[in-house]
Each structure stands twice: as C-alpha cells, then as structure tokens.
Amino acid sequence: MTLLLNVNVPRSLCHLLSIQGHECSHAADLGLRSATDETVVDTARRMGATIITHDLDYGKILYFSGLTSPSVIILRLRDVSVEHVGTILRRVLSRLQKELRAGAIVTVEEGTVRVRSLK
Question: For residue 101, what pLDDT is reported?
C-alpha cells in the first residue's frame, strides 16, 4: 500500500512502514511542509496514497467534498511513539486493505477503529 505521512507524523514512521512492505513518503520530503490540507489531499490522490495524520481536518475535507479518494487514517492515540503507532498501523493496514483501497476515513483510537466509507 502507498502511504503519505502528514507533517505532524514523525518521518521515522516511514522507515518502519517500509519494513512492513509499504511504500511510504513524508509530506515534508515532498515539499509539502507548509502546504494546505487540500494540497496534501490532491497530492495523495495523484500518488494513489492513503494519508496518515493526527489532523481531524482531513476527514472533514474528504467527507464534505464528495471525493472518494484518497483514504485517510486519523490517529487519535495517547501513545504516539513510533513503535506503538507502527504496531497499531500494521494491524489496521492489514485488516482494512479493501476499505482503504475503495476510499475510507479511518479513525484510530486506543482500542477502537472506526471506518467510514467515502462512497
């Protein structure tokens, strides 16, 4: 799966996700450090990537825009260490591949994963 980490997610998570078999880019490495959320969404759509972020605005943008892609995973975790987030994402990405490929907003909280289809 192709992933785009938002600037509020540590770059080091890209390395961990790559080891897990995912193609991963960080928004800052693509020149998107100061980009609007809409620009990040457009970039992810062109890349065919799922956005991973802590920012709730991405879910709102996608839900109200009527877009069916890209998917977004919104992390709402207390423990934001790379190891903890990597472990949770490994489970989420393997379990929700079909939904993420089809277009979804996924909110990940401690012990809870909510999925809303974009279609």
Answer: 96
- Asked if 26 and 14 count as a contact pair (C-beta separation under 8 A), the reply is yes
Give me 44's structure tokens: 């992810």
| Structure-block tokens of residue 104 | 């979804």
The three-state secondary structure class of 106 is strand
Residue partners of 47: CB distance under 8 A and separation at least 6:
2, 4, 25, 70
Please check whether residue 40 is in contact with residue 4, taking contact to mean a CB–CB distance below 8 angstroms: yes
pTM for the whole thing?
Answer: 0.95
Q: What crossing angle do the helices spanning 57-65 and 37-47 adopt, rounded to 10°?
A: 70
For 60-105, the pLDDT digits (tens) are 999 888 889 999 999 999 999 999 999 999 999 999 999 999 999 9
pLDDT in tens, 44-65: 999 999 999 999 999 899 988 8
Residue 22 has pLDDT above 90, yes or no: yes
Fold exhibited by the domain 2-117: Rossmann fold (3.40.50)
Give the distance, in angstroms, between the CA of residue 81 and the centroid of all CA atoms in the same chain.
16
